[in-house]
Amino acid sequence: MTDDQRRATLLRTVALEAAGLNALHEALQGELGTRVLEAVAVILARPGRVAVTGMGKSGHIGRKVAATMASTGTPAQFVHPAEASHGDLGMIGRDDAVLALSWSGEAPELADIIAYTRRFDVPLIAITSRPASALGSAADHCLALPRMQEACPNGLAPTTSTTMQLALGDALAMSLLEARGFSPEDFREFHPGGKLGARLKRARDLMHGPEELPLVPLGATLEQAVVEMTSRRFGVTGVLDGEGRLVGVLTDGDLRRAFQRGAAMAGPVAAAMTRTPLSAAPETLAADLLGLMNEKRITSLFVLSDGRPVGILHLHDLLRSGVL
What we know:
Elements: H1 3-28, H2 31-45, E1 50-54, H3 57-71, E2 76-78, H4 81-84, E3 97-101, H5 111-119, E4 124-128, H6 134-138, E5 141-144, H7 160-180, H8 184-190, H9 194-199, H10 203-206, E6 215-217, H11 222-231, E7 236-240, E8 246-251, H12 252-260, E9 274-275, E10 279-280, H13 286-296, E11 300-305, E12 308-314, H14 315-320
Parallel strand pairs: 1-2, 1-3, 3-4, 4-5, 6-7, 10-11
Antiparallel strand pairs: 7-8, 8-9, 11-12
Helix pairs in contact: 1-7, 2-7, 3-7
């Protein structure tokens, strides 16, 4: 097989799967979209979980759909249909809904789960390409996928079909996310680790607290401000008015410029400080903070509440948190 033939295989595979997604997109504009919205309403009305099930490749897709739902505000778990027949049916509660995936709709391993949902009146939502199949005909809500050609040259390995199943599962999960008003803050609660968790942290999660703040009053001398600056490790000193509000900062750059102008150490800090400095609110996202500090080329930033410093952030704090 030549390189050109191999490249043709790559392109044909992606083209066929893209065609499947395009067909799904079109179907969602019609009856399938209506049925998906009905399924969303059913899930939202259930106080329990979504039990996702499927056999073989559909099962692998089902695991991912369950994981996506669980991480975006819809409690969900995967129930293996073969294990369900040996006791795991107990994982499906009377308040749950079942989402079953099967391209053919005839996977025999699903029979006991289907029967269980009918016996105990648990809503059954099917994702299949055959509405008249055993699964499709038993389901309360059948989400019928367009039948498209598999990318496998033998027409056997699930490829286009699983891509379409996954896309519809993601669409269902995102509809549920928006319906629940799931926020970035909610998302962070389920993703505390890794880069994603770091980017969703807030200033309040990373800042140094009040006991570490380098601060001097507005009436301080330049010498007093320098002493305060050097006693800390942020390369900056905040300047407060009589009500404790931040009215300026003194940085290394401010010091250099002041000395170039011939400022004396006994002179007022107010003459050398940067007025109306950049600051952040405690709820500001870490990713936004990093962008701001890079754009303005600053290494430290005070965190304010009602104009008063409650913390300070150094660029290193953001980098150590894994934001990048």
